[in-house]
Design a protein that fits this description.
Elements (H helix, E strand, L loop, with lengths): L2 E5 L5 E5 L6 H7 L19 E4 L4 H4 L4 H7 L9 E3 L12 E4 L6
Parallel strand pairs: 1-5
Antiparallel strand pairs: 1-2, 3-4, 3-5
């Protein structure tokens, strides 16, 4: 099972295992990772699952879709490496993925 590391603003690191085909958001919720609220449940209708993808993983996670970019407009402190975790599908290639949570969600 792929592992994902979530790092919060206090630099506390939480590594969780998740199933292939799930999303990074689902991994966070299933494992009680603080900082990922996911109010819309993964429908890409809010920006409360906003994360920052570490630079070495940006190519593997891909660029946000136009719809995701529109939702990121509602995010807090959006950066070039911002993604909605509900839109990142877990694959074997993402084993070891590192994402950081923002100070707060929108």
């Amino acid at each position: 099972m792929p592992k994902i590391t979530f790092i919060d603003t206090a630099d506390t690191s939480r590594t969780v295992e998740t199933e292939i085909g799930s999303t990074v958001m689902e991994a966070a919720l299933k494992n009680g990772v603080p900082g990922v609220e996911a109010e819309c449940g993964g429908a890409c209708a809010c920006a409360t699952c906003h994360v920052y993808v570490d630079e070495e993983w940006r190519e593997k996670t891909g660029a946000p879709s136009p719809m995701e970019e529109d939702m990121l407009d509602f995010g807090y402190d959006v950066r070039p490496n911002s993604r909605l975790s509900c839109q990142i599908k877990v694959t074997n290639d993402l084993d070891g993925l590192v994402v950081r949570t923002p100070v707060r969600q929108a």
